[in-house]
Task: structure prediction
Amino acid sequence: MRASSSFSYIPYSTGSYTRDLFLSFRGEDTRYNFTDHLHKYLVLNRINTFKDYELTRGEEISEALLRAIEGSKLSLIVFSENYASSRWCLDELVHILDCKRSKNQMVRPIFYKVDPSDVRHQRGKFGEALVRYEHRFKDHMDKDKVLRWRSAPS
Result:
């Protein structure tokens, strides 16, 4: 992967989440291998990158994370085998794609040990995770959320 010369370095200041790049990934799948190597490469090439280990995890996606996504010029989504098994990742994905539409942000997928057509057509483990959410939230307010998750990668 070669860094684009169109990125300018934006210094990170506490309290602000303006970044060149937001990195979305499933920690269990890629945190200590692919994503760490990618993050190091980006930082070495002075691409100001937000990696979500910088925030405290909770049940719901935090306001700070939403601001980090909104303040980025580009989002890289590392789709991996268990990406869709994380509600947090799916919420990130929906917000990233909303920002792509509303703020004209750039979004690029990376498929790590997963077939792109499995994500696009919601097959394999990606599709299985969404089916589990549909059954879990069948009679629940969150069923609308599952519909947004389903429509995001298509």
Remarks:
- The first strand starts at residue 19 and ends at 25.
- Residues 19-114 form a domain with the Rossmann fold fold (CATH 3.40.50.10140).
- The radius of gyration is 15 Å.
